[in-house]
């Protein structure tokens, strides 16, 4: 299998415009949903990823690998690392464009093992937009913002209407959110951006 990088983004794109209401660089972002496996503070054994807005088109996230995240003894599970990148990339799209979007495609390259106890520093970047398609990529570094790269990811997110979540979400969870809106982040999306 060739390791030659394929062109990225794979189609012609425009540079995404940061939404006028995107949080300022340096802002620490709250969990977007309390029960989100990636960032939720009520998701036991979740990743508890924390994200801070960076300059330009970037968001910096970090999470610490725990015993609950193992694949092999003492090492993070690769699928779980992919989950962390899905979250970090989705947070980047959602916060900088202020529009709901879902992951359509996620590609991860695992370059180094990630031991339990490691903190991964994930630097995610909005790369391009083509209609509803948003291209994003990220590097994950071991134990420091300038540590060695352990994981790389790139993804296609597709902008969706909020009705996507109402149509497909489990009813009892939607009802729970309606009863307690604090389960969701306090920065609601615009319905018609
Ligand atoms: C602040 C908020 C923070 C949020 C963080 C959350 C992080 C976590 C994010 C997730 O994990 S979301 C959950 C996992 N993803 C899903 O459940 C999505 C499931 N898939 C779908 O619902 C639909 O397939 C989807 C909305 C992605 C697309 O369906 P649509 O009918 O709306 O659109 P369509 O199929 O026409 O695709 C739109 C464009 O995207 C392209 N596309 C869609 N899926 C693709 C794919 N897999 N590969 C390549 N291209 C793809 C498609 O070809 C097309 O390109 P063109 O506009 O050029 O024709």
UniProtKB/TrEMBL annotation:
Its EC number is 3.1.2.2. Residues 1-27 are annotated as: Disordered. It catalyses: (9Z)-octadecenoyl-CoA + H2O = (9Z)-octadecenoate + CoA + H(+); decanoyl-CoA + H2O = decanoate + CoA + H(+); (5Z,8Z,11Z,14Z)-eicosatetraenoyl-CoA + H2O = (5Z,8Z,11Z,14Z)-eicosatetraenoate + CoA + H(+); hexadecanoyl-CoA + H2O = hexadecanoate + CoA + H(+). Keywords: Apoptosis, Cell membrane, Cell projection, Cytoplasm, Fatty acid metabolism, Hydrolase, Lipid metabolism, Membrane, Transit peptide. Residues 74-139 form the Thioesterase domain. It is an enzyme of class 3 (hydrolase). CDD domains: PaaI_thioesterase. SUPFAM superfamilies: Thioesterase/thiol ester dehydrase-isomerase. It is found in: Cell projection, Ruffle membrane; Cytoplasm; Membrane. Residues 1-10 have a biased composition (Pro residues). InterPro entries: HotDog_dom_sf, THEM4/THEM5_acyl-CoA_thioest, Thioestr_dom. It is a peripheral membrane protein. PANTHER family: ACYL-COENZYME A THIOESTERASE THEM4. Belongs to the THEM4/THEM5 thioesterase family. This is Acyl-coenzyme A thioesterase THEM4. It comes from Actinokineospora xionganensis.
């Amino acid at each position: 299998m060739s390791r030659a990088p394929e062109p990225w983004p794979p189609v012609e794109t425009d540079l995404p415009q940061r939404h006028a209401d995107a949080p300022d660089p340096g802002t620490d972002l709250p969990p977007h949903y309390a029960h989100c496996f990636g960032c939720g503070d009520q998701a036991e054994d979740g990743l508890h990823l924390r994200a801070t807005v960076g300059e330009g088109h970037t968001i910096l996230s970090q999470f610490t690998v725990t015993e609950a995240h193992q694949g092999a003894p003492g090492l993070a599970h690769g699928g779980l690392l992919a989950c962390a990148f899905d979250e970090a990339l989705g947070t980047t799209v959602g916060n900088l464009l202020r529009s709901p979007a879902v992951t359509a495609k996620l590609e991860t390259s695992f370059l180094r093992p990630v031991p339990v106890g490691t903190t991964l520093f994930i630097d995610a970047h909005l790369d391009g937009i083509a209609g509803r398609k948003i291209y994003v990529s990220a590097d994950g570094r071991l134990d420091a913002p300038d540590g060695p790269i352990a994981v790389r990811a790139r993804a296609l997110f597709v902008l969706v209407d909020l009705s996507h979540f109402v149509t497909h979400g489990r009813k009892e969870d939607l009802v729970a959110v309606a009863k307690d809106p604090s389960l969701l982040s306090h920065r609601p999306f615009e319905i018609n951006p």
